[in-house]
Amino acid sequence: QVLLVESGGGSVQAGGSLKLSCVASGLSGGNYCMGWYRKVPGKEREGVALVESYGTPDYANSVKGRFTISIDNAKTTLYLQMNNLKPEDTAMYYCAADSYFKLGNFCGYYGMDSWGKGTQVTISQ
């Protein structure tokens, strides 16, 4: 069973930074497909950033140049460094993983089957 636990959310002023963490357990194999998503009430969930084994990270246009996704060498913790935060970044942020991912498979925002419970990020003017 895959367990994902996010942390690092909080309230900061516009222009500030936050670093989200997602501790993952239960993922088998050395390859991964994981991502960060965010959800605002009344809006659809948005894929923010994606990372896979041996691949180039992908970012939503709205966060390119400001957010950086990374994973530790042990492949147990996923990070999202968020800089120059804007009020429109306010949302609940979720970590997700494709627990069936194998090298050569397609890694995409719609392929995740395991989700964390989220961490709230609030950006004020």
What does this structure look like?
- This protein has no helices and eleven strands.
- With 125 residues, it is mainly beta.
- Strands 2, 4, 5, 6, 9, 10 and 11 form a seven-stranded mixed β-sheet that branches. Strands 1-3-8-7 form a four-stranded antiparallel β-sheet, with no helix packed on it.
- The radius of gyration is 14 Å and the shape is globular.
- The termini are far apart.
What are the main properties of this structure?
4-stranded antiparallel beta sheet, globular, mainly beta, 0% helix, 125 residues, 7-stranded mixed beta sheet
The SS-based structural class is mainly beta
The helicity comes to under 10%
Radius of gyration from the alpha-carbon trace, in angstroms: 14 Å
The largest sheet is: 7 strands, mixed
What's the pLDDT, averaged over the residues?
A: 95
**H/E order of the elements?**
EEEEEEEEEEE
Low-confidence stretches: none
Number of beta-strand segments: 11
Beta strand %: over 45%
Distance between the first and last residues' Cα: 40 Å
Number of helices: 0
User: Looking at the structure, what is the overall shape?
Assistant: globular
Topology:
Blueprint: E1 3-7, E2 10-13, E3 18-25, E4 33-39, E5 46-52, E6 58-59, E7 67-71, E8 77-82, E9 91-97, E10 114-115, E11 119-124
Parallel strand pairs: 2-11
Antiparallel strand pairs: 1-3, 3-8, 4-5, 4-9, 5-6, 7-8, 9-10, 9-11
